[in-house]
Amino acid sequence: MMTMNVGPFALAVPHVLLLASLFLAMLTGWWVGRRSERNPEQQLFRLLLVALLVARLAFVVVYVEHFRDEPWRVIDIRDGGFIAWPGVLVAVLLGVWLAWRELGLRKPLGAAVAVGVLSWGFGTFALHAFEQGTRLPEMGLRDSQGKPVALQDFVGKPLVVNLWATWCPPCRREMPVLAEAQRNESEVTFLFVNQGEGERVIADFLSAEALGLDNVLLDTGGRLGQHIGSSALPTTLFYDADGRQVGSHLGELSRASLARALEQLEVTTQP
């Protein structure tokens, strides 16, 4: 499962995990500090903001070449570009300093940070382990000519599967990035699985945008999205040459976030 539905909203599971960890940390801080009447809630929010900021800056530094032509994308966090461990490390160190500076906050803040980091860490590990055990679905779709195609036919090379639709603004924005990657990454197969639309709508869109995509597939019933547990678009899945899922991305991909995902895909497929 990649998303959780809350009314009309689809929330990514990693985001839900982060919010749940923050809630547990706040609850722990309140419980431990209730006798001394010291609630570290304010400090916890500051630590979270610092962690996110440092994680984003670390990502930008590592993939700075992808931001040179579009520097405004540095602040566009919709691409999910974060490197977690520098942010966690800085936040923990800052938490230690805050706790050392204020004696009354040592126990509640220390306990809250420990619970928050551990719950997020264990949850992230469990989610990653679950994802690693998922395989490419045995499912039949249709190509742009209406001919039947089986997803298993593409096993044998690293695979990127993008779920998209023409009515989806972030799907439209990321299409040039994926098209460029398809041209440049000859060792990786890219599949563009349209969700719920017909051949004419797709053909008109690709023609209007001058997108020369290969491997455009039709999933008129949206079965693939249902199978993987994602009700949001765009969704991108990464599989190794054996058809084992090694990563996923919910939301728009930038050149930087796609580069990182492809690097991780390459690492997992190396003998």
Would you report the number of β strands? 9
Detail the poorly predicted runs: none
* Count of distinct structural domains: 2
Reading the helices and strands in chain order gives EEHHHHEEEHEHEHEEH
For the record, what CATH class of the largest domain applies?
Alpha Beta
Portion of residues in beta strands equals 15-25%
CATH superfamily of the largest domain: Glutaredoxin
Taking all Cα atoms into account, the compactness measure Rg is 21 Å
What's the main sheet like? 7 strands, mixed
Could you characterize the architecture of this molecule?
This protein is 50% helix and 16% strand. It has eight helices and nine strands. The chain has a seven-stranded mixed β-sheet. Strands 1-2 form a two-stranded antiparallel sheet. Strand 3 (140-143) and strand 4 form a beta hairpin. Helix 1 runs antiparallel to helix 2 and helix 3 runs antiparallel to helix 4. The mean pLDDT is 92.
How is this fold's topology laid out?
Layout: E1 3-6, E2 9-12, H1 13-32, H2 41-62, H3 84-101, H4 106-132, E3 140-143, E4 148-150, E5 159-164, H5 169-184, E6 189-195, H6 199-209, E7 216-219, H7 223-228, E8 235-239, E9 245-250, H8 255-269
Parallel strand pairs: 5-6, 6-7
Antiparallel strand pairs: 1-2, 3-4, 3-7, 5-8, 8-9
